[in-house]
Design a protein that fits this description.
The protein contains nine helices and 15 strands. By secondary structure, it is an alpha/beta fold. Strand 14 (263-264) and strand 15 form a beta hairpin. The structure holds nicotinamide-adenine-dinucleotide.
Length: 329
């Protein structure tokens, strides 16, 4: 039987409480305790989860080998630095930090101390995406929409760093090519910062991604559409549904084909369109993400999103945000 990882959670606000709660249920994790600068909040949560409420970060660090950092983004650098300098592994919620320099600093520090950085890009663990793991995804065009009703939480950063960064990370995981050009626009609606943004990213290999993100919407939407040769894939991350349309060689009247009019390919072969709705086991994405982290600390798996991947997503997000600010000037 493998050993358990002694772990603590720093920041038990809206999301951190779910981290702590999952960590009480993951087999190889041993939740030692929590720390939050709002001591009243952490006292309440510690009672609810039957775990220890530490009075200081240092006392928590003395008792664990790994941390989940779920504090506001502006604090990630300092909190993570403190943990890493004591030789502790860190899971840092997304975005990894507020600046690329801060992310580079943490990556270097983690290398020096031989510890893992994992970043909380949770959509990578969405069952609707995992259902597509057998598919060779190499999109030439991606269209993404992510909308959410307005909430004051998360507004310490612009919408690009709050919402769009989820899609940027996904896109960078699908398109294995450097970014060539970025066009972006955005507007402020509810805050002094950018609340609605649209970005068009062109990659060196010719692929294009068009992303729209808004935190001023009536309903929540999280949808991605991907197009490549002979393949069209849609993922609804909220509903947990993915759909695949494939153009394939087929017999004249294949009953499984959905397209009644037969297509003839460039080579003159008979083609038809087939539809699939792949399903994956329903799992909780946050729990799956934390299991990946625990297994990474145990040396059994690699983090799905390491510090470098978190930095790459942040870098593109900041470039998009800078373009928006340039356009607004
Ligand atoms: P929140 O404001 O609800 O909670 C943050 C908590 O951290 C609060 O309880 C606060 O008292 C505490 N805190 C602040 N500074 C601290 C410090 N220096 N040390 C210890 N505790 C401190 O925020 P939230 O919505 O839970 O977001 C936290 C992080 O999680 C942010 O980085 C956010 O971007 C990220 N997040 C990610 C997702 C996702 O989908 N992966 C969703 C929501 C939030």
């Amino acid at each position: 039987m493998s050993r358990q990882v002694n772990i603590g959670v720093i920041g038990v606000g809206h999301l951190g409480v779910h981290h702590a709660s999952h960590l009480t249920k993951i087999k190889n994790a041993n939740l030692i305790g929590i720390f939050d600068s709002d001591h009243q909040r952490s006292e309440e949560i510690s009672k609810k989860l039957n775990t220890k409420n530490f009075e200081s970060i240092d006392k928590l660090l003395d008792n664990v080998e790994a941390l989940s950092i779920v504090t506001p983004t502006s604090t990630h650098r300092d909190v993570a630095e403190r943990c890493i300098k004591k030789g502790k592994h860190v899971f840092i919620e997304k975005p990894v930090t507020s600046t690329v320099d801060d992310a580079n600093h943490l990556i270097e520090l983690a290398k020096k101390h031989g510890v893992i950085i994992q970043v909380g890009h949770i959509e990578r663990f969405n069952p609707a995406l995992l259902a597509l793991s057998n598919l060779q995804i190499d999109p030439k065009y991606i269209e993404v929409h992510r909308m959410a009703p307005f909430m004051s939480r998360g507004t310490d950063v612009p919408v690009v760093l709050d919402l769009m960064i989820h899609d940027i990370d996904l896109i960078l995981s699908f398109i294995n090519s450097p970014v060539k050009e970025i066009y972006a626009n955005g507007v402020s609606i509810m805050t002094n910062s950018v609340d609605i943004a649209n970005a068009r990213i062109k990659f060196e290999n010719g692929a294009i991604a068009n992303i729209t993100s808004s935190r001023v919407a009536k309903d929540r939407v999280r949808k991605i559409k991907m197009f490549q040769q002979d393949l069209y894939v849609t993922i609804d991350f909220l509903a947990g549904i993915s759909e695949v349309y494939k153009a394939m060689d087929a017999s004249q009247n294949d009953p499984d084909a959905i397209m009644s009019a037969p297509l003839v390919g460039k080579d003159g072969r008979h083609r038809q369109i087939f539809y699939e709705k792949p399903t994956a086991k329903k799992t909780d994405a946050l729990k799956a993400e934390l299991k990946n982290y625990i297994n990474a600390v145990l040396g059994k798996e690699k983090p799905m999103v390491d510090g470098f991947a978190g930095k790459q997503a942040l870098d593109v997000a900041i470039r998009i945000h800078d373009k928006i600010l340039e356009d607004l000037r």
